[in-house]
Amino acid sequence: MAVYTPVTEIELKDFLSAYDLGRLRAFDGIEAGVSNTNYFITTDAGRFVLTLFEPHRVKAEDIPFFIHYSSTLEQAGVPCPKTLLRKDGKSISPLCGRPASLFSVLEGEGSTAGKLTPSMCEQAGAVLAKMHLAAGSVHEVAINHFGLSRWKLWVGDLGASMDRIAPGLHDFARAELGWVSMRWPSKLPLGAIHADYFPDNVFFKDGNVSGVIDFHFVCTELFAYDLAIALNAWSFDQDNVFQPARFAAMMRGYNSVRPLSAEEQNALPVLLRAAALRFLLSRIEEKLNWNEGDFMVPHDPMVFKSRLRHFQSEKIAA
């Protein structure tokens, strides 16, 4: 359950007094998600999403960048939640010791690995490319807090404790980190990327993309790396079996809007492995730090070890 910070009715009413939304009618915690606390809020003015940004995943100084990125995408025609402004024009307010914002509710819903089709993957690829083109007007730079330097810290700090999850996992991760580090591409196009473009963060309605959500990992990074994250997330079914038709469809959709350069194409095998390694390591950290009774049950890191193994194959690397 993604409600790390409980909010009382009194606290919420005080928070909402800064907005011109009328009276609070109802509020319910949103179980989906893993990084921030989210509530559905219903007022006289309608239904909204309240997000409290949690410090274990989000740095407060990055939040204005997230909101600016979302607004930029919206202006470029990518459906994104609208950020509601307070009466004084501000978009971020303190609530229960957390920075918090209100957003509009998008139509549709996110998908799962078991429901994806090649058509959905193609559409998602095209939207991601559109996001990368729109990022050209985002001139600010945001550090990737979950990039290569963080992976090195994870491997070093977690060390042999990784083997509590599976024997040999530490050596496997350390070897892959060394391989990726030596081959990390340079001089490729970069800008603001989503960095968490998973099926549950892309809404569909009547078979069409109706919105993109969750910008708490947005950072300045290689566009091809963002595509590699998406390919990791969309190309495997509910049994974690690679689906080449989904992979090809996402590539087709992406290239129809923003064709990859030859250099990006050549770097993609490395970036596919790097993206799988990133989520393998973050899930290892979550699993090792999880305690009985915690709100969120951690995702299985071995899912991404399997995907990394797949992208290590000569067939994909070729």
Distance between the termini: 41 Å
Summed over residues and divided by their number, the pLDDT gives a mean of 93
List the total number of helices. Answer: 10
Portion of residues in helices? 40-55%
Shape: globular
Main β-sheet, in a few words?
5 strands, antiparallel
Give start-end ranges of low-pLDDT stretches: none
Per DSSP E runs of 2 or more residues, the count of β-strands stands at 10
Integer-rounded radius of gyration: 20 Å
N-to-C series of helices and strands: HEEEHEEEHHHEEEEHHHHH
What is the structural class? alpha+beta
Strand order of the largest sheet: 1-2-3-5-4
Write a brief caption for the model.
The chain has 318 residues and is an alpha+beta fold. The protein is built from ten helices and ten strands.
